[in-house]
Every structure is written in C-alpha cells, then in structure tokens.
Amino acid sequence: MNYEFPGALPNQNIILTKTCLIEEANCVLIIAFYKGKLVLVRHHSRGWELPGGNREEGEPIIRTVIREMYEEAGGELELIERIGQYLIYEQGQLLFVKNIYISKVSALRELPKGFETEEVMLLDTIPKQSEIMEDPAFSPYMKDNVYLIVSEWIKEHPFRVGQ
C-alpha cells in the first residue's frame, strides 16, 4: 500500500511505502533503538529529529546508514533492517528517495565533533504525532505523516526490546 500526503515543507508531496519503488535511494532515515529507547538527535538549526542523511557518491546505501548513525549520534549499529521508502517531490520534481531503516544500536560513543547535530536524546516511549506537532523543539521533518505512519509500523518490532 502506498500513502500520499503533503510534505513538511511548502510545495512538497510525499509517497510512502513499505516496498522499494526506486532501487537507488539517495538518502536514509534511521529509526534507532538503544537498549529499547528511541534515539533522537538535535540538529543545530532544525531541532530534534531522527538520524539520517544523504548518501555519498559511490557509497553503498547500508554504509550510509552506518556512517550517518555514527556522525549524528555516535552510534554503532548491531542490526539494520529496511522497513520502507519514501519519495519527496517538490513542485512535481523528484528530489529525494529515502530508504527507512530500523536499527538496534550496540553502543553510543561520544558525539563526533564537526557534524550538524549537537545532542542525543533517548526516549522510553515513541512520542505521539500530536506531541511533536505542538512542540517547536522538534524539527519540521518530524511533522509530516512519515513519522506518524512509520511509528505504527514499528510498534511491535523486536529491535525495540531493551537489553
């Protein structure tokens, strides 16, 4: 099943699916759990959000997941599973193809210097969409239906179990 809805930013449209619509993703979104707690990062200008980012040229997409998790949260990943993909269109042009991954973090190290995030937060519960929408501390990227729908997909996922 595909979902279609407006993006977080003006003139954006998103298509979200559990399947892979386009093989070559250029970005990743990581829903990471450390000891059963959701990992959020605070971007220096956008606020609290899920880790993720752009694929570097020639980089395998799974390597992008590993690199972005380290750069944004100091996280080392133990398990990684692709759970979906979304396409971001702006004024009819496809801009981003983001693979969505759920992961289990084996270790959180000191936050690397020189990257765009300033802090890591661990949450016992996944915030409700209404909480995120009302809180200006959250990034606009958390305020579209991607987060709402994907948080339902992962409710019973085994990576959420703490150890």
Fill in the CATH topology: Nucleoside Triphosphate Pyrophosphohydrolase
CATH superfamily: Nucleoside Triphosphate Pyrophosphohydrolase
Could you give the count of β-strands?
9
Using the coordinates above, name the CATH class.
Answer: Alpha Beta
Taking pLDDT < 50 over at least 5 consecutive residues as the criterion, the unreliable ranges are none
Q: How many structural domains?
A: 1
Shape: globular
Return Rg in Å.
15 Å
Average pLDDT rating: 94
Largest sheet: 9 strands, mixed
N to C succession of SSEs? EEEEEEHEEEHH
**CATH architecture designation:** Alpha-Beta Complex
Strand content: 35-45%
Straight-line distance between termini: 33 Å
Domain Nudix hydrolase: 20-144
InterPro entries: NUDIX_hydrolase-like_dom_sf, NUDIX_hydrolase_CS, NUDIX_hydrolase_dom
Keywords: Hydrolase
Protein name: NUDIX domain-containing protein
Structure explained in plain terms:
Strands 1, 2, 3, 4, 5, 6, 7, 8 and 9 form a nine-stranded mixed sheet that branches. The chain has three helices and nine strands; from the N terminus they run E-E-E-E-E-E-H-E-E-E-H-H. The protein has a single domain (2-154), classed as Nucleoside Triphosphate Pyrophosphohydrolase (Alpha-Beta Complex), CATH 3.90.79. With 163 residues, it is an alpha+beta fold. The chain has helices spanning 61-73, 129-134, 145-153; strands at 2-6, 12-17, 27-34, 37-43, 47-49, 52-54, 75-90, 93-108, 117-123. It starts with a strand and ends in a 10-residue tail after the last helix. Residues 20-144 form the Nudix hydrolase domain. InterPro entries: NUDIX_hydrolase-like_dom_sf, NUDIX_hydrolase_CS, NUDIX_hydrolase_dom. Keywords: Hydrolase. This is NUDIX domain-containing protein.
